[in-house]
Every structure is written in structure tokens, then in C-alpha cells.
Specification:
Protein name: L-lactate dehydrogenase
Family: Belongs to the FMN-dependent alpha-hydroxy acid dehydrogenase family.
Number of domains: 1
Shape: globular
Number of strands: 12
Keywords: Flavoprotein, FMN, Oxidoreductase
GO molecular function: FMN binding; oxidoreductase activity, acting on CH-OH group of donors
Mean pLDDT: 97
Largest sheet: 8 strands, parallel
Pfam families: FMN_dh
Bound molecules: flavin mononucleotide, 2-OXO-4-methylpentanoic acid
Length: about 350
């Protein structure tokens, strides 16, 4: 029976996945306050449709960081797809390519970037800048050669968030036979060496972003910028986009939902940087609310893993197809011809005080 919504797909994935793997995907950090806040924020904003605008069938196609996409919904980077399905990132990449969606490959993918690129769709590569600049440089050259169209540099992880579900379940590392394939340096003949672990470093600074900017001509997005002052600072560093993200509630707990932080960031950067929002997007209406507050696109993390777990490539295709049709319907019902038509006038923030005429 095909899931009618991402909620149904989530339940199906939960029933299929080994509980420790389910927790690894589903969990957040510490008390999971941010994790819950992400979805809740969308439910607390209402949509007030405009009528009779005659905009015709909504168009979803867009361009982001030089990539054409058939919909403004990006696959966020998530680690370890082969824990969800044996075909892992290959299956995800095929589904994304067929849907014309941009797939952001995690640095912690369990398939090498060259093998993922075989699917032929637009790929971005997510990078944790490593203290070993030589390694980072080699990896950047490798993903350039593989045809990745942009780098998404995750900046919300100077240290790793404390994920208590994983500690309780004793999930420490990938099982034998799986590793972070992009962490295996390439030898002179392209042979892959032993995997190194990903380092998280509190010494990283804007100077490292400047260094990366000099190193590559690929567009660079910073992922995890939430403070308007950092958004403004990023304008000076020559980056090309920002992901407004709290890492799906997996890093600093009690960070508010990205949806709530979006408008001040959009104010801070104006039209100079496109914004991608991720965290809790589960419906077409959620995406529309993010567009109304200034996002150019949204990204989805966990739903892709649910789709993979339930049906491999077909499951991810189903996730994208559900969101595409929901977004088309939400735009049409709001009188919008595209995501660009969405504006704050469509939003209702609930501080409901009944008002009625007394005379
Ligand atoms: C299982 C899992 C693995 C993730 N791995 C990465 C990663 O390797 N790099 C990264 O920048 N973000 C990673 N994220 C965060 C996502 O890119 C994204 O910010 C988040 O999942 C969005 O929220 P959502 O899952 O509610 O859609 C991961 C998230 C999950 C759930
Ligand atoms: C392996 C981790 C680095 C992946 C990650 O960022 C996450 O699990 O949130």
C-alpha cells in the first residue's frame, strides 16, 4: 500500500528499520527540543489564501547555484544511506536525477562520490572542513572531478552534538563492510585507501572559508547559519548561498526552528544570497510558508531516509512526487503561480484574540 503522505511513510519506515538505526535517523540532540520545534513551527503558522488571481497552473522549476532543478526542494545531506537500503546513495541519486531534483551528497556517504555521480543528476557535495587542509583540498579536487556543482559547507558542528539515543543504543560506528567512502583518500591510480574519520574542529573560522573560496571556483553554500550577524558576515566571504538549518535538531539543542529565524536572515542578506531552509519540512504547505518568509528553496533530510528504507529508489521517488504534488496544490490554492509569488501576506501568526462587532 503506497503511503499517502510523508507521515505514513515515516510510520512504515519505523516499522521496517532495526530500532537502533531508526533512532540514529530520527533522533536529535539532548532533550530534542529543537527536533520537535522544527515541525511544530510549521503547524503554528496559518495560510490565508488569495482568490481569483488567475495565475494558472503553478510552475515549480527553478535555478539554484547555477543548477536547473524541476522543483525548489533539495535533498539535504544525510549520512549513511546504506544503513537504510543496500543500494544506499546510488538509489537516492537515481530517484533525484529522475525527478530533476538536486541531491546534496553527505561527506559521510557510504558510497563514493564517483559512484553516486553515475546517476547523472545535479549533485552538490556537503563538506566538513578538515583541520588537515591537504586532505580537504584533495577532497575538493575529487568532488570537482566527479562533477559536483557546488560545495555545501556545514558550519554548525565545531563539535559533535550529543545524541543520547545513540549513546543509549551503543551506536558508535558503522557496521563492518560500510565506511564513509569519501574519507578514503584516492591513490595515484584512483584506488581508494583506508577510510579516515571525520574531524570536527572548534578552531575553524571565517579564515577557513576565505581559504576555501580561494581554492575552488565551485559555488559555496554555508549550512547552519542562523544568526543575522553571521548571515551579514557571510556576504564578505564570497559565498553564494546559505542553508538556514539547525541540522535537524541534532547539534545545539534548544535552537529555535529555522522557520522562525528565517525572516531576520532574509532581511540581513536581502537579494544578495539565496536561502535554503531545512528542518521539519513534511508538506507542500510547509515549503510554501518557507518561501513566503524568504527561502528560495527548502531541503528535506529524514523523509529521504524513510523513502529509502521503505522502497529504495522507488521510495525516494515517491517522497519527491508527494511533495511535488502537494506544493503544486498548495500554491494553486493560495493563488500563486510559482514559489516567487509566495509572500508574507499569505501567513497568519496565531495570537488569536476574538474580535467581534459590538454595535
Ligand atoms: C540521519 C541524518 C544524518 C545527517 N547527516 C548530515 C551530514 O552528514 N551532514 C550535514 O551537514 N547534515 C546532516 N544532517 C542534517 C540534514 O542535512 C538536515 O539539516 C536535516 O536533516 C533537516 O531536517 P529534517 O530531517 O527534519 O528534514 C543529517 C540529518 C540526519 C537526520
Ligand atoms: C556522521 C555525521 C557526521 C553525520 C551528521 O552530520 C549527522 O548525523 O547529523
Amino acid at each position: 500500500m503506497k503511503a499517502l503522505s510523508l507521515r505514513e511513510l515515516e510510520a512504515a519506515a519505523r516499522a521496517l528499520l532495526e530500532p537502533g538505526i531508526h533512532d540514529l535517523f530520527a533522533g536529535g540532540s539532548e532533550d530534542e527540543v529543537s527536533l520537535r520545534a522544527n515541525e511544530d513551527a510549521f503547524a503554528r503558522v496559518g495560510l490565508v489564501p488569495r482568490v481569483l488571481r488567475g495565475r494558472g497552473a503553478p510552475r515549480l522549476d527553478t535555478e539554484l547555484l547555477g543548477c536547473r532543478a524541476s522543483l525548489p526542494i533539495v535533498l539535504a545531506p544525510t549520512a549513511f544511506h546504506r544503513l537504510a537500503h543496500p543500494e544506499g546513495e546510488r538509489a537516492t541519486a537515481r530517484a533525484a536525477a529522475a525527478a530533476g531534483a538536486i541531491f546534496t551528497v553527505s561527506m559521510a556517504s557510504t558510497t563514493a562520490i564517483e559512484d553516486i555521480a553515475q546517476a547523472g543528476g545535479p549533485l552538490w557535495f556537503q563538506l566538513y572542513l578538515q583541520p588537515d587542509r591537504g586532505f580537504t583540498e584533495a577532497l575538493v579536487r575529487r568532488v570537482e572531478a566527479a562533477g559536483c556543482k557546488a560545495l555545501v559547507v556545514t558550519v554548525d558542528s565545531p563539535v559533535f552534538g550529543r545524541r543520547e539515543r545513540d549513546l543509549r543504543n551503543g551506536f558508535m560506528d558503522l557496521p563492518p563492510g560500510l565506511c564513509c567512502e569519501n574519507m578514503r583518500p584516492l591513490g595515484p591510480d584512483g584506488e581508494r585507501g583506508p577510510a579516515r574519520s571525520i574531524a570536527f574542529s572548534p578552531t575553524l573560522s571565517w579564515a577557513d572559508v576565505d581559504w576555501l573560496r580561494e581554492l575552488t571556483s565551485l559555488p559555496i553554500a554555508l549550512k547552519g547559519v542562523l544568526h543575522p550577524e553571521d548571515a551579514k558576515r557571510s556576504l564578505d566571504s564570497g559565498v553564494d548561498a546559505l542553508f538556514v538549518s539547525n541540522h535537524g535538531g541534532r547539534q545545539l539543542d534548544t535552537v529555535p526552528a529555522p522557520l522562525e529565524l528565517l525572516a531576520p536572515i532574509a532581511d540581513a542578506v536581502g537579494d544578495r544570497l539565496p536561502l535554503v531552509l531545512d528542518g521539519g519540512v513534511r508538506r507542500g504547505t510547509d515549503a510554501l510558508k518557507a518561501f513566503a518568509l524568504g527561502a528560495r528553496a527548502v531541503a528535506i533530510g529524514r523523509p529521504v531516509l524513510w523513502g529509502l528504507a521503505v522502497g529504495g529508489e522507488a521510495g525516494v521517488a515517491h517522497v519527491l512526487s508527494l511533495l511535488r504534488s502537494e506544493l503544486e496544490r498548495a500554491l494553486a490554492l493560495c493563488g500563486c503561480g510559482s514559489a516567487d509569488d509566495a509572500s508574507p501576506e499569505l501567513l497568519h501568526f496565531s495570537r488569536w484574540e476574538p474580535r467581534w462587532r459590538t454595535s
